[in-house]
Here is the input.
Amino acid sequence: MTNRTVIRCLILLALLNLVDMYVTIALVSINAAEEINPLMNYVLQFGFIPFIAVKSLAVSFVCYVFWKYKEHMLSQIGIYISLFAYLSLILYFSVEML
Here is the structure.
């Protein structure tokens, strides 16, 4: 995987995280959904700002680790698994909203 490909994947991962945050906050604020992740659900009890901060820091840390170890096969697999998970989540949100 080239550096350019890794950068593109990490940018996409960060953007998908933003979409996930936005949709989660929007749905939770109107009681149309709840956060399934127990850790993030706990943080969400303190408000949207802590939720945004913790989620952003967690994804930023993951992106840093993926970048630092980009030459390792496990990191490359992790990037693709993370992208697949976020894309699946966005697809799920899309289907549920219909």
In short: The two ends are 37 Å apart (CA to CA). The chain has a mean pLDDT of 94. Helices lie at 3-29, 38-44, 48-68, 73-97. The CA atoms of residues 54 and 73 lie 27 Å apart.
